[in-house]
Amino acid sequence: MPPAKKSPIIEIHTPPYWEEACKHLAKKDRVMKRLIPQFGDACLESHGDAFTTLARSIVGQQISVKAAQSVWDRFAKLPRKMTPANVLKLKVDDMRAAGLSARKVEYLVDLALHFDSGTVHVDAWEHMSDEMIIAELVAIRGIGRWTAEMFLIFHLMRPNVLPLDDVGLITGISRSYFSGDPVSRSDAREVAVAWAPYCSVATWYIWRSLDPLPVVAY
C-alpha cells in the first residue's frame, strides 16, 4: 500500500498584543470588562497567505458560507498550487465550471495580476500604515473598503481597525451600549474612543457577543 498522504501543516498565527489589549479594554470600557472573561483564552487567529485569503473573500461575496466553501473547493483544485501566476494560467471556462460568475472570474484575474506584477507591496506591508494598505487593496477590482479592513484584522492582525461599514459591529454596539436603539457611525466612533489603540480586539469581542463561534480567516 502506498503511504498515506500527510495533511498539510497549517500555520496558525495569533496576535502578540492580545493579552495587553484585553487588559486595556477591560480597564477602559465597562462592556469589554464584562464581555472579555466570557470567552476564556480564545483570540483572533490568522491562517494562510495573503493572496489565498483575498481570493477566498472574492469567491465568498454575496453567497452563503456553505455555497462559498463549495465553490472554493472546486476552484482550488484547478491550479496545482494557489499562486497568482498559476491562477493567470487558468482557462476562463474552467473557472466558470467551478461555479464562479463571470464577474468573479474577472475579479480573481485582476487580483492575480496585481500580486503577480508587484503592484501590491506585500513585503512592505509590515512598514505601511493601515490606510496605505487599504488604498492598495481597494485598487483591485472586487475589493472594497470593508473587505480590506477584514483583511487587516484577520490576516495582518492590525490592532486598531474600526470597520464602521460592518453590520455586525454596528448591531453589537447597538445591543451592548444603546439598549438596542439605532446607532450611527458617529455613535460607534464615540464608543470606540475608549477602545483605541485596540479597536480590532474590541470589534472581535463585539462580534463574539453576537455569535459565540469565533470567526477565522484563511
TrEMBL record:
EC annotation from Swiss-Prot or TrEMBL: 3.2.2.21
Annotated InterPro entries: Alkylbase_DNA_Glycosylase/TA, DNA_glycosylase, HhH-GPD_domain
Keywords associated with the record: DNA damage, DNA repair, Glycosidase, Hydrolase
Catalysis performed (reactions): Hydrolysis of alkylated DNA, releasing 3-methyladenine, 3-methylguanine, 7-methylguanine and 7-methyladenine
Ranges where the HhH-GPD domain occurs: 59-211
SMART domains: ENDO3c (SM00478)
Top class in the EC scheme: hydrolase
GO molecular function: alkylbase DNA N-glycosylase activity
UniProt keyword annotation of Hydrolase present: yes
Protein name: DNA-3-methyladenine glycosylase II
Organism: Variovorax soli
